[in-house]
Amino acid sequence: MAKIKKVKNEIKCATQQVIVSRTDTEGNIVYCNPTFLELNGFKSSEVIKKPHSIVRHPDMPKSIFRIIWSIIQQGYPIQALIKNKTNDNHYYWTLINIKPQKDRDNKIISYVAYGKQAPDAVIKEIEPLYKIMVEIEKDISIDAALEYMESHLNEKGMTYAQYMKELNKNRKFKCLCDFIKIKLFK
Asked: Which of 7, 26, 74, 168 has an alpha carbon 20 to 30 Å from 180's alpha carbon atom?
């Protein structure tokens, strides 16, 4: 595909490349597109039926995944900025939209994720926040990291969806969660 380049340990995709994966309701990969495979350095047989967390980078706060699961299990889409780890221990940042897929009876049957290369300005904004959240998770708890995130958002006067939209402003990647008016933190 030649649109992927490595800069030190980071992998950068061309802006038009889209990473696609579909998981079952337990988070196990049931489909991924060729870009996902190439970027992550896997063959499809190595990821199908494996937990999507196979690409989770240790720098990612677990609390972000708690937010994601909380929203998508309610049947809503969400956008998030994710740092993933490749099979050869490189990493990449993706701005991802995750959307529940439902059957005719409106029951969630899978989740589809569409990701694009995260803009450097967005990474620069969120990476320090994630670093603090990971430290809080290690030293205190995931709940404490969620409280920190909530305080961070309250200070900005934004919901999580508004924050993602603000980070992504003028970056030509529509947030599927703009309409969500639910409370993330309980």
From this structure: 26
